[in-house]
Write a structure and sequence with these properties.
By secondary structure, the protein is mainly α. The chain has one domain. The chain is built from 16 helices and no strands.
């Protein structure tokens, strides 16, 4: 039995019995989708974030920085991208983390592998994908996101772009806070607070994403996306990436839209490219990063991310 069946039943009763919309109508389908997905995804999000917070309590920024400061060459990029999965720092953390990594001697390319992976391939997104679409799609997204983060960081490291970091960053000494050992009681308290903080920040994006998804579910013709993003369109992947860049959201907020895109027939690689563009090429994060890196490096960062995301989209369209 579907554990979310009671929510689906309630959403249908509210939509078709209480509100009185026709089940076969576009508006009825859109409203039922919205009323079902909002509590479903917010409930999943709260449970997942609580579990994530327990994991995250073992990886404070100081410990993460310590691991990366001893990493070099390609293994450093792999480690940085992997740590980005279990340390889902938000864009507001980008500047202090960047300064801390540079001050600790972490190579620039390794730092960017972390900065790419952290918003794109965090465990909240993976577990939501797993719960909604199955483990295979979650693992495909994990491999794709890690590949983008590792390759992007390696390229930036090879280009020798340290001179494009603002000079004051190298002069700063942010210091190291002592790493406190937390009890399990401390971790549970932290997790409860983290749920309130994260869910409180992301729920508007989730609701907004579901509203867009509900509209698409009810009103978008079945063949619309097949015309623009189907197998017959060789430019489907770059079009999806370009559409995703200005749609700022986090992974939790974009997953409801991804669900509808897949339902409407968009190819898997194109869907992955769209999702990665939305969460990895965040305009607010780029604005914040401008405080520590010069415009040329931002442009290179965006260009490398865009090219690698498009390549991933084409690759998975070819093999799936």
């Amino acid at each position: 039995m579907d554990i979310f069946y009671p929510l689906e039943w309630l959403a249908n009763r509210l939509t078709f019995d209480l509100i009185g919309l026709a089940p076969e109508s576009h508006l009825g389908e859109a409203v039922a989708f919205f009323l079902y997905d909002v509590p479903k995804i917010l409930l999943m999000l709260a449970v997942i974030v609580y579990a994530v917070a327990i994991i995250r309590s073992f990886f404070p920024p100081e410990k993460t920085k310590g691991y990366l400061s001893h990493s070099r060459l390609y293994m450093g990029n792999v480690l940085a991208a992997s740590l980005g999965i279990v340390t889902p720092f938000c864009s507001c953390s980008a500047v202090p983390l960047f300064i801390g990594f540079v001050e600790a001697g972490v190579p620039l390319g390794v730092t960017f592998s972390f900065l790419i992976a952290s918003p794109m391939v965090n465990e909240v997104a993976l577990i939501l994908l797993w719960g909604l679409f199955g483990w295979k799609i979650a693992m495909i997204y994990l491999v794709a996101g890690l590949s983008v983060a590792i390759v992007g960081g390696i390229i930036i490291g090879k280009l020798g772009l340290e001179h494009l970091v603002e000079e004051y960053v190298y002069e700063m000494k942010v210091g190291n806070k002592p790493i406190e050992e937390l009890t399990w009681s401390d971790r549970f308290t932290y997790a409860r607070g983290y749920v309130g903080e994260i869910v409180g920040k992301v729920w508007p994006y989730v609701v907004g994403g579901i509203a867009i998804g509900g509209f698409m579910h009810g009103y978008l013709p079945e063949d619309f996306l097949l015309r623009w993003a189907g197998e017959g369109n060789p430019f489907a992947v770059p079009v999806a990436v370009l559409l995703g860049v200005p749609l700022y959201s986090n992974a939790a907020g974009v997953i409801p839209i991804v669900s509808v895109l897949m339902e409407k027939g968009m190819a898997m690689g194109t869907v992955l490219a769209f999702m990665m563009a939305v969460v990895a090429l965040s305009v607010p994060e780029l604005i914040i990063l401008r405080k520590v890196i010069k415009p040329k490096l931002i442009a290179i960062f965006v260009g490398i991310n865009t090219v690698t995301i498009i390549a991933v989209g084409y690759l998975f369209n070819a093999i799936l």
